[in-house]
Amino acid sequence: MLEAVLKNLFLYASKSKMLNKAAKKWGLRFGASQVVAGETIESAIAKVKELNDKGLVCTLDHLGEFVSSREEAIEATQYNIRTLEAIYKAGVNSNLSVKLTQLGLDIDFNFCLDNMRQIVGTAKRYNNFVRIDMEDSAHCQATLDLLRELRKTYDNVGTVIQAYLHRAEQDVKDLKGVSLRLVKGAYKEPPEVAYQDKQQIDENYMNIIKEHLLSGSYTAIATHDHHIIEKVKQFTKEHGISREQFEFQMLYGFRTDMQLQLAREGYTMRVYVPFGNDWFGYFMRRLAERPQNVAFALKGFFRK
After folding, report:
1. pLDDT tens-digit profile of 150-181?
2. Is 70 exceeded by the pLDDT of residue 231?
3. Where on this chain does FAD bind (predicted)?
4. Of the four, 82, 127, 134, 273, which is 20 to 30 A from 91 by CA?
5. CA-to-CA distance for 31 and 298, rounded, in angstroms?
């Protein structure tokens, strides 16, 4: 009961514009520095270097979403382009992850598409890959529509499918051949569009993982759930699926021992590395996913 209350509280806070604005002034506090790799491109690249040295590959995410002006979206576009340039110049092993609402999706679809073409085109020149993060269900169809437009020209772009959505299985089938990150889902969604029961979500998660792997498509399994990870290991072994066809992904700052163990076992282990001063919404969603992390956050706060 308490866990459900905390989850709803954190999800509500994640959408508060007032709290997000205040958080930018606070800096990385309340434990956020343990899960956010600094506020600048330079600090993020330094963290990626550290992770690469440990045998881990990365994807960088400049935090921010739901922008309301073209100026903000253009600024975010240029920042993402500079991040790709920094990855290339530093010679680190990292992709880029982006959120479409940060790039103007809520302002105008074609405006956002133009911004994404600039980013994906830059990534193509640097032989890099861009992952479009999936946001709440209200943006799901527009995200997939935009992805399909991009893939008419570029093959170095993919997206994320959330297992708690009823539509997930069909979306995975429709996206055969596209590199997908498969996740359970982290937004508060109504029963009309999403499963509410953990067991149902877990079952659907394994179903879509198997579907995408068996189709021969590149699959990123993004989870901290060791039960799921063991099932994927067994499934890929039984079906003779090459380790070149899939990877595991986890969030920066979470289950680091397991990340290193998977890398030692010879699996591709990619760390999702968020950075920037717009960290509050991301951090609240991480606490909502697992309210036990409140103790983790408070520990970081009292170290300040």
Report:
1. 999 999 999 999 999 999 999 999 999 999 99
2. yes
3. 134, 162, 184-186, 198, 223-224
4. 134
5. 6
Q: How is the chain classified by DSSP, letter by letter?
A: -HHHHHHHHHHHHHT-HHHHHHHHHH-S-TTGGGTS--SSHHHHHHHHHHHHHTT-EEEEEE------SHHHHHHHHHHHHHHHHHHHHHT--EEEEE-GGGGTTTT-HHHHHHHHHHHHHHHHHTT--EEE----GGGHHHHHHHHHHHTTT-SSEEEEEETTBTTHHHHHHHTTTS-EEEE---S---TTTB---HHHHHHHHHHHHHHHHHTT--EEEE---HHHHHHHHHHHHHTT--GGGEEEEEETTSSHHHHHHHHHTT--EEEEEEESS--HHHHHHHHHH-TTHHHHHHHHHHT-
Instruction: Identify any residues that bridge with 250 across adjacent strands, giving them in sequence order.
Output: 271
Q: Which residue positions form the known binding site for FAD? A: 134, 162, 184-186, 198, 223-224
Task: Please give the positions annotated as active site.
Answer: 133, 181
Q: Compute the radius of gyration of the chain from its Cα atoms.
A: 18
Q: Is the pLDDT of residue 184 over 50?
A: yes
Q: Which tens digit of pLDDT belongs to each residue from 232-286?
A: 999 999 999 999 999 999 999 889 999 999 999 999 999 999 998 776 767 776 7
Phi-psi region of 177 (alpha: psi -120 to 50; beta: other; left: phi over 0): left
Structural domains of the chain ordered from first start: 37-278 (3.20.20.220)
Q: Are strands 94-98 and 130-132 parallel, antiparallel or unpaired?
A: parallel
Structure token digits, residue 216 = 């021969």
Rounded alpha-carbon distances, angstroms, from residue 247 to 35, 157, 185, 275: 21, 16, 18, 22
Would you state the structure tokens that stand for residue 187, as one six-digit string? 């937004």
Band (303; pLDDT cuts 50, 70, 90): very low
